[in-house]
From TrEMBL:
Belongs to the NDK family. It catalyses: a ribonucleoside 5'-diphosphate + ATP = a ribonucleoside 5'-triphosphate + ADP; a 2'-deoxyribonucleoside 5'-diphosphate + ATP = a 2'-deoxyribonucleoside 5'-triphosphate + ADP. Residues 5-143 form the Nucleoside diphosphate kinase-like domain. The keyword Phosphoprotein applies. The lineage of its organism: Bacteria, Bacillati, Bacillota, Negativicutes, Acetonemataceae. SUPFAM superfamilies: Nucleoside diphosphate kinase, NDK. It is found in: Cytoplasm. ATP binds at residues 14, 62, 90, 96, 107, 117. GO terms for cellular component: cytoplasm. Major role in the synthesis of nucleoside triphosphates other than ATP. The ATP gamma phosphate is transferred to the NDP beta phosphate via a ping-pong mechanism, using a phosphorylated active-site intermediate. This is Nucleoside diphosphate kinase. GO terms for molecular function: ATP binding; metal ion binding; nucleoside diphosphate kinase activity.
Length: 145
Protein backbone atom coordinates (compact mmCIF):
# COMPACT_ATOMS: atom_id res chain seq x y z
CA UNK A 1 0.00 0.00 0.00
CA UNK A 2 1.39 3.40 -1.04
CA UNK A 3 1.01 5.93 1.77
CA UNK A 4 2.39 8.88 -0.19
CA UNK A 5 0.00 11.68 -0.98
CA UNK A 6 1.59 14.08 -3.45
CA UNK A 7 0.28 17.63 -3.22
CA UNK A 8 1.25 21.17 -4.14
CA UNK A 9 1.08 24.30 -2.04
CA UNK A 10 1.77 27.99 -2.36
CA UNK A 11 4.55 29.49 -0.27
CA UNK A 12 5.25 33.21 -0.03
CA UNK A 13 8.38 34.70 1.47
CA UNK A 14 6.93 37.96 2.77
CA UNK A 15 8.65 41.35 2.50
CA UNK A 16 10.39 40.95 5.87
CA UNK A 17 11.86 37.60 4.77
CA UNK A 18 13.10 39.11 1.52
CA UNK A 19 14.59 42.07 3.42
CA UNK A 20 16.36 39.71 5.86
CA UNK A 21 17.98 37.86 2.95
CA UNK A 22 16.66 34.42 3.93
CA UNK A 23 15.04 33.37 0.63
CA UNK A 24 17.82 30.89 -0.13
CA UNK A 25 17.69 29.37 3.35
CA UNK A 26 13.94 28.87 3.13
CA UNK A 27 14.20 27.23 -0.30
CA UNK A 28 17.10 25.09 0.91
CA UNK A 29 15.12 23.88 3.93
CA UNK A 30 12.28 22.69 1.70
CA UNK A 31 14.62 21.03 -0.78
CA UNK A 32 16.63 19.28 1.95
CA UNK A 33 13.34 17.91 3.28
CA UNK A 34 12.63 16.36 -0.13
CA UNK A 35 10.12 18.87 -1.48
CA UNK A 36 10.44 20.24 -5.02
CA UNK A 37 10.14 23.87 -6.08
CA UNK A 38 8.11 23.69 -9.31
CA UNK A 39 7.47 27.43 -9.79
CA UNK A 40 9.27 30.49 -8.44
CA UNK A 41 9.13 34.27 -8.95
CA UNK A 42 9.87 37.53 -7.19
CA UNK A 43 7.25 40.25 -7.49
CA UNK A 44 5.87 43.38 -5.89
CA UNK A 45 2.26 42.54 -5.07
CA UNK A 46 -0.44 45.03 -6.05
CA UNK A 47 -3.07 46.03 -3.49
CA UNK A 48 -5.71 44.46 -5.75
CA UNK A 49 -3.98 41.08 -5.85
CA UNK A 50 -3.28 41.25 -2.11
CA UNK A 51 -6.99 41.88 -1.46
CA UNK A 52 -7.82 38.78 -3.50
CA UNK A 53 -5.24 36.75 -1.59
CA UNK A 54 -6.64 37.85 1.79
CA UNK A 55 -10.32 37.93 0.73
CA UNK A 56 -11.45 35.74 3.64
CA UNK A 57 -10.25 38.48 6.01
CA UNK A 58 -12.05 41.38 4.31
CA UNK A 59 -14.05 43.37 6.84
CA UNK A 60 -11.88 42.28 9.77
CA UNK A 61 -9.99 44.95 11.71
CA UNK A 62 -6.57 43.61 10.66
CA UNK A 63 -7.32 43.34 6.91
CA UNK A 64 -5.80 46.70 5.93
CA UNK A 65 -2.65 45.92 7.92
CA UNK A 66 -2.25 42.59 6.10
CA UNK A 67 -2.57 44.29 2.71
CA UNK A 68 -0.27 47.17 3.73
CA UNK A 69 2.45 44.78 4.86
CA UNK A 70 2.35 42.27 1.99
CA UNK A 71 2.52 45.15 -0.53
CA UNK A 72 5.29 47.03 1.31
CA UNK A 73 8.14 45.38 -0.59
CA UNK A 74 9.00 42.49 -2.89
CA UNK A 75 7.86 38.97 -2.10
CA UNK A 76 8.90 35.59 -3.44
CA UNK A 77 6.12 33.27 -4.52
CA UNK A 78 6.71 29.58 -5.09
CA UNK A 79 4.80 26.40 -5.71
CA UNK A 80 6.14 23.54 -3.63
CA UNK A 81 5.36 19.92 -4.44
CA UNK A 82 5.86 16.69 -2.54
CA UNK A 83 4.45 14.09 -0.21
CA UNK A 84 1.83 15.88 1.92
CA UNK A 85 3.44 19.19 0.94
CA UNK A 86 0.77 21.33 2.61
CA UNK A 87 1.18 19.66 6.00
CA UNK A 88 4.97 19.43 5.75
CA UNK A 89 5.37 23.10 4.76
CA UNK A 90 3.05 24.30 7.54
CA UNK A 91 4.94 22.24 10.11
CA UNK A 92 8.28 23.59 8.87
CA UNK A 93 6.94 27.17 8.99
CA UNK A 94 5.92 26.96 12.66
CA UNK A 95 2.92 28.55 14.31
CA UNK A 96 1.46 31.77 12.90
CA UNK A 97 2.54 33.66 16.01
CA UNK A 98 6.35 33.37 16.01
CA UNK A 99 6.48 33.82 19.78
CA UNK A 100 4.95 30.34 20.02
CA UNK A 101 6.93 28.83 17.14
CA UNK A 102 9.49 26.21 18.05
CA UNK A 103 13.19 26.77 17.39
CA UNK A 104 14.11 25.01 14.16
CA UNK A 105 10.95 26.17 12.40
CA UNK A 106 11.22 29.04 9.93
CA UNK A 107 9.20 31.41 12.10
CA UNK A 108 10.87 30.15 15.26
CA UNK A 109 14.27 30.98 13.78
CA UNK A 110 13.51 34.22 11.90
CA UNK A 111 10.48 36.06 13.28
CA UNK A 112 9.30 37.72 16.48
CA UNK A 113 5.88 39.24 15.74
CA UNK A 114 2.68 37.93 14.19
CA UNK A 115 2.51 40.94 11.86
CA UNK A 116 5.97 40.24 10.43
CA UNK A 117 6.19 36.46 10.42
CA UNK A 118 8.35 35.99 7.30
CA UNK A 119 6.38 33.33 5.42
CA UNK A 120 2.95 32.22 4.22
CA UNK A 121 1.86 28.73 3.27
CA UNK A 122 -1.55 27.55 2.11
CA UNK A 123 -3.58 26.01 4.93
CA UNK A 124 -5.57 23.44 2.92
CA UNK A 125 -5.83 21.82 -0.49
CA UNK A 126 -8.64 24.20 -1.50
CA UNK A 127 -6.63 27.23 -0.36
CA UNK A 128 -3.57 25.96 -2.24
CA UNK A 129 -5.51 25.58 -5.49
CA UNK A 130 -7.06 29.06 -5.11
CA UNK A 131 -3.82 30.78 -4.02
CA UNK A 132 -1.58 29.21 -6.67
CA UNK A 133 -3.92 30.61 -9.36
CA UNK A 134 -3.50 34.12 -7.89
CA UNK A 135 0.28 34.04 -8.46
CA UNK A 136 0.93 31.62 -11.34
CA UNK A 137 -0.47 30.76 -14.75
CA UNK A 138 -0.54 27.03 -15.40
CA UNK A 139 2.24 27.41 -18.03
CA UNK A 140 4.57 28.83 -15.34
CA UNK A 141 4.39 25.65 -13.26
CA UNK A 142 6.94 22.95 -14.06
CA UNK A 143 5.10 19.65 -13.64
CA UNK A 144 8.03 17.36 -12.82
CA UNK A 145 6.33 14.06 -13.61
Amino acid sequence: MDLTMESTTLVLVKPDGVQKGIIGDIISRFERRGLKIIALKMLHLSRERAAIHYEEHQGKPFFDGLVDFITSGPIVAMVVKGNQAIKVVRTMMGTTNPVDALPGTIRGDYALTIGHNVIHGSDSELSAIREIKIYFDEKEINRLD
